[in-house]
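User: quick one
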Amino acid sequence: MEEKNIANSSLGKKVLEKIQMQKVKPSPRWVFLLKNYSAWVIGVLSLVVGSLASSVVFYMLMNNDWDVYKNVDDNLFSFILLTLPYFWMILLVLLIIVTDYNLKNTKKGYRYSTVIVFITTFSVSIFIGAILYNFEVGRIIDNAFADKVPVYEAMFHKMNHRKKIWMNPDRGLLIGIVSDSENGNNFVIKDFQNNTWMIITEQAEFIGKTEMITGDGVRIIGKREGDNLFRAMKIFYLAEKRWLTPPPDFMRPHDFFLGPHGHMPPPPIQ
Amino acid sequence: MEQNKILEKTDEELVDLVLEDQEFFLHIMERYEKKLLSYILRISNISFEEAEDVLQNIFIKVYKNINDFDKSLKFSSWIYRIAHNETINNFRKNKARPQIIRENKRGDDDLLILDKIASNIDIEKEVNDKYLEENIATLLEKIDIRYREVLILKYIEEKDYKEISDILKKPMGTVATLLNRAKKQLRTEIEKDKRYHSLI
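Assistant: Done. Structure below.
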């Protein structure tokens, strides 16, 4: 036993000598506490930002002009594929991965399986995102990015994307600003390409406002009846001022598939 | 402090003493030197001298990180975790080097491995004790290191699922999966080896 202790302690003594020679000291406790708290803070922050991203996803999905998809693409499935908010969805997934990584690096986080952490993080992000969406947070974030980040405005901003979809008279969609409202019930608009259109309103349903005046923004569903004539079925008043500025010319990823006017080519004339 | 009183101290109490006086670290090293050395040698295919070097690095790391020891964990799980990480790092660094062929001395330890693993991997009756006795160490070295380490932790180090989970920092469900795959892979190696020997 004594021999064993002597033999065993030689390695121990070597280690102790090394520790003393190299002046090795135990790292202070606050270093480990800081590491652990940082992992928690980053994990929770990613979850919060993920929730904000999911509120934008909700906003974009709820304002995707589902009711006029047939005017954009005859196939609902391809319309969905082309209009999903990929930027925010990819960002949401990346943030969930960051949350998972940081939670796994906390003292006890490794005990939970990746699947459970993913599902929990995803569900919490979606739940909080839905609440934030109801408080218009998604729209505010989308507009704020459009104001501050030119590339975002050109490529991902929901409203610009929607404007391009509505610049589509051959498929029955029109958007513009009222330039003359003194034509009885009818009025004249100028679209974002500076074309002038006479809008016939006798069969139209007005939504948001019943009488348009000069300077009002409108979206119209109807049918083109001539070079500058459009018969309206539904007229939407555009209260938000952002609708009144033309979208940038920058090509978006969607445009490669939808064409520069944000729609599939019109069906062949029969 | 008298030797007897030190022997009565738990690992966790010794840790508190180490923070007051460095010399108490010797007693922690004495308690774990032999266990960790066998663990390093079983996991990685390195020489005894290299294993001792790895062990020294492990103990220095343990000392440096002693303030990180969380008392809600068993100290043995914590020190095995550091040993595991250091051994794997060393194994990965040396993977490219020519493998050491250690003299396969069959002693009590190999019979211990044989007894514990063989009864748990559900092998065919035709595979007899003598075959396993001669080949178990070689067969273990053939399987993936991730599987080898769980087999060794479970059947040699006699750690339970929670301890293995704390050592490897993986969920208990993952530990159970790794163990099943380890047994499967070991069975496959035994079958391959049997077929090879029947052909030559």
